[in-house]
Structures are given as C-alpha cells and as structure tokens.
Input
Amino acid sequence: MSTEETIATEIEVYDLDCAGLLCPLPVYKAALALAKLEPGDRLRLITTDLGALEDIPAMTRQRGDTLVSVDREVDRQTFLIQKGTQP
Amino acid sequence: MTTELAPEPTPIAEAPPRRKRIAIVASKGTLDGAYPPMILASTAVSLDWEAGIYFTFYGLDILHAERFDKLKVASLANPAGPIQLPNILGALPGATAAATKVMKTWMTDARMPTIPEFIDMTQELGVRFFACATTMGVMGVKESDLIPGADIAGAAAFLDYAADADVSLFV
Output
C-alpha cells in the first residue's frame, strides 16, 4: 500500500443528519460536531433547510473548514466538510 | 472599602488570532422579538465568533427568571402576527394568549428550540449576556430576578464590548 493510500484511509468521516431542521440548527449542530473532530476529519451533513445552500458554505468560510463537496438533490443537500486546522 | 485594581495584563508575545465578534442589543420582550437575537448569537458562536447580547428595556424580560418562558406575541397592532384579527377583536381577553399559542405551535412543529432552550444553548457556547442596569433601576428588577450568568452593566460597558465588534445590531 502506498503512503497516499494509507493517509486516505485514515480520514474519518462522520455523519450528521439535520433533515427537517431550520436555521440556526444545522449550523449549530454542525459546529458542535466539528468541535469533536480532529483536523482533517470529515463531516457528512444532510440538510433540508432552504437556506443551507448559502449557510453551510458561509459557515465553512467563517470557521476555516473546507467544503469538499455539495450534493444537491430535489429535497435535500449533502455537504462534505473537512475540518480545518483552527484551534 | 477600597478595592485594589489589578494592573492591566501584560500582552502575551504570541496572542491567539483574534476572533470576530458580534454585539447585539435585544430591546423587545415579545416571544417573536426574542428569537432573532438568540438565533444570531447561537449562529455567531457556531462560526467561531465571540457574541454578546445587551438586554435592555423590555428585552430584559428574556433574562427574567419568572418571565423568560412566558413571553407573548401581541394580538393587537401586529398585522403580520400569527392570528389575523381586526384590532377591535385583538383587544379581547384571550387574544394575546391565542396568538402566543399559535406561534409556539409553529415553533414546536418546526422543531425550533424554545427561548429557554436558546438561553442554555448560547450560554453553554460562551455567549456573553449583559443586563441593562438602568432598565433594572427603572423597572424595579433585582439581580435575584435574573437567570444566572448575566453581567449587570450600563451603556459604557456594552459600548466597550461593541467597540471591538465586527457586527453590531439593535433588534
């Protein structure tokens, strides 16, 4: 196994389902979840809040995390967030 | 009694990076008026900002231990309120209670936290609460009437906090 693959397998991905929750709860719960993760770990966040497509990118920008991907479906969004190196 | 004041702390060589800050004045004591400052403060700390709320005039009821879970929605002179009544009917006994009940049902159905729950959420995340000292004097509110964890302060203390804020809002 190459070094790169070894590193890739060490990234932990956690799930948080905020379907049905409105602002501020998806951001609030995501921040609580991210606080428990190590830098580089990832959070897969599911939302249905109409504002989430703007709010979650704003949250990662303000907190210093990275928004890796957004999967936009008709009635829900799935965000993959990588925790930054902030204290 | 004279209290010796501690000298200003010496700046640390490598201070941590400064966090953004929001300073909010909460001046409304209605149920609908209590949500916006709580939503903004809980969001700000979730963004890793510092947040402080200055509760003044009727907004002080949000910190009042016997009133903060009994905030109401006006049924009179509230054309966008949860029940649409002509003012003559909005003045009837029970109309305010009805409007309040409707909004509480909306909030519960939408799985939104109650105001007491928001108080807990924001305090746990370090939101600073200021209780307006002048409001306390004018309205006869005692320190023991307030929920724990609020700093009693005047305008100068709030402005000192707000002077270092990136966002200041009066709601």
